[in-house]
Specification:
The complex is a heterodimer of chains A (232) and B (239).
Chain A lengths: L1 H9 L3 H18 L4 H23 E4 L6 E7 L2 E6 H27 L2 H10 L4 H30 L6 H32 L17 H20 L1
Antiparallel strand pairs in A: 1-3, 2-3
Chain B lengths: L2 E10 L9 E9 L3 E6 L5 H8 L7 E6 L2 E2 L4 H10 E4 L12 H11 L4 H14 L15 H13 L5 E5 L7 H16 L3 E5 L3 H6 L3 E6 L2 E6 L1 H6 L1 H7 L1
Helix pairs in contact in B: 3-4, 3-5, 4-5
Classes of the chains: A mainly alpha (232), B alpha/beta (239).
Chain lengths: 232, 239
């Protein structure tokens, strides 16, 4: 995953991005056995966002007729054009972002946060950042649970029966969640202290088994990205 | 019988409160006993438990752990917190890590044990609490009962002499409640003292060796369950 990401960033050629995309799509769906529909759904959101951004790069609007445009349209006294340069730039941005996004999707869809935390711990990210990450991750679920309970209670008392009550209830929900988060953080501090917290939060490291296939796949991926960069 | 934990004339008032939460609370826990602490909401049960391992410091009075007065220096608190384990009503307040194994290991790692010792403790405590199959699971994916067992296991890895459980069976189904109580029974057989604060009077009547009643920040009576529940005066306080 990492070499696909780095490859896309360091080798500025659309082919590299598309090769990385194909690799990551195959690895995610066939090797990691993530359902294709899940992969496509995640990708759809990203590609939609990407296309909207790329359209802005591709097109330029000016008052005078463009001299070097591949396509140009005139409307209400203005010229909308697509030049060869902007098209190339848009294509490269799209391919590069697509390759990076699918590489990140592979990580997100296949790797539990515990393993990601273990990885960043091993690469010596400061403890304080890891602690924040761990506690935030845990808090997401706890607060989500509180959010659902409060919203259900509000709904049961017609809290969202029209737009204005919905606004009011949402505001109250937000402020209440803040209080819940604060109280929970206090209680968690007490719980951690009573379990001997006296400095950074330390837990036992996860153990992993080595899989040589990962190395083979990594080498093949890197070689194919370099080949796309040199040959195309 | 050896006195494992003693609260002597504790007085504590929360900042800004009119009334003291503890007003001369005195209670002694002896080894090998299951003590249930009962009392109405606001009677001071949870506040008393928070004094046991130095989370709260009394304005006056003294806490003694294994016969020694509790000191509030950093080093002494670490030692006291190893001896006295606290389990809270809501396990979500206690579980902080992304995986069960890491959460359970937290206390043992804080004791400065080696990696192998920590893993051994985690494995034995997980077996005892019957959560070995949950070790690789993320904590947010557990049911309420499973979370409670993980929270208990997290405290047990520190090998405490005293377990203070604050309403830990609240919200659990009857089967899980029995499971938790059986876990405590096994600990008591190993010589651990269990002090269980609860509103469940059935637990107090049928499970406890001793019942302590709290009222207005004081421990007003301690005795056998039959003595407490058959006394009309305490029955009125409890019901």
């Amino acid at each position: 995953m990492c070499n696909a990401l780095v490859g896309c960033l360091l080798m500025p050629h659309p082919a590299v991005g598309f090769v990385a995309f194909v690799w990551m799509a195959v690895l995610t769906t066939l090797w990691a056995r993530i359902p294709t529909i899940v992969f496509m759904r995640v990708l759809f959101a990203e590609v939609t966002f990407l296309l909207v951004s790329v359209i802005g790069i591709t097109m330029s609007i000016q008052l005078s007729p463009p001299s070097d445009a591949l396509f140009a349209w005139s409307a209400v006294g203005m010229w909308v054009s697509v030049s060869a340069e902007s098209f190339e730039l848009a294509l490269m941005t799209f391919a590069r972002a697509l390759g990076c996004a699918t590489a990140l999707n592979f990580l997100i869809l296949t790797t539990p946060l515990v393993d990601i935390i273990e990885l960043i711990r091993r690469i010596r990210i400061p403890d304080v950042l890891i602690e924040i990450m761990v506690l935030l991750y845990r808090s997401i679920f706890v607060l989500l649970d509180s959010l659902i309970r409060i919203a259900t209670a509000q709904n049961a008392r017609l809290g969202y029966h029209n737009m204005w009550s919905g606004f009011r209830s949402s505001a109250m929900l937000g402020s209440q969640l803040f209080l819940v988060a604060y109280r929970r953080s206090q209680r968690m501090r007490v719980a951690l202290e009573s379990r001997g917290l006296d400095g950074p939060i330390c837990v036992v490291a996860s153990r992993y088994t080595k899989d040589n296939r990962v190395w083979v796949l990594n080498i093949a991926l890197t070689v194919s990205l370099c080949a796309a960069w040199f040959l195309l | 019988m050896e006195n494992v934990l003693e609260f002597n004339q504790l007085y504590y008032r929360f900042p800004g409160a009119d009334k003291p939460a503890l007003n001369g609370a005195t209670l002694t826990l002896t080894r090998g006993k299951k003590i249930v602490l009962v009392g109405r909401n606001g009677s001071g049960k949870s506040t008393l438990l928070l004094h046991a391992n130095g989370i709260l410091k009394p304005e006056s009075g003294e806490v003694r752990v294994l016969g020694r007065p509790l000191q509030y220096s950093r080093k002494e608190l670490v030692s006291a917190r190893q001896q006295v384990g606290l389990i809270f009503q809501n396990p979500d307040d206690q579980l902080f890590s992304a995986s069960v194994e890491q959460d359970i290991s937290f206390g043992a790692v804080n004791l400065g044990l080696t990696d192998e010792e920590v893993r051994d403790r985690v494995a034995s405590v997980a077996a005892m609490c019957e959560i070995t199959d949950l070790l690789d699971r993320p904590t947010h994916a557990l049911s309420g009962g499973q979370k409670m067992r993980v929270a208990i296991a997290g405290v047990l890895t520190m090998n405490p002499q005293v377990i203070l459980a604050d309403e830990v069976t609240a919200g659990l189904d009857p089967w899980m409640r029995i499971h938790v109580l059986e876990s405590f029974d096994r600990l008591v057989k190993q010589g651990v003292v269990v002090l269980f604060a609860t509103h469940d009077l059935n637990i107090a009547r049928f499970w406890a060796d001793e019942v302590a009643v709290m009222e207005n920040g004081q421990v007003t009576t301690v005795g056998l369950p039959t003595q407490v529940f058959d006394n009309p005066m305490w029955r009125e306080v409890l019901y």
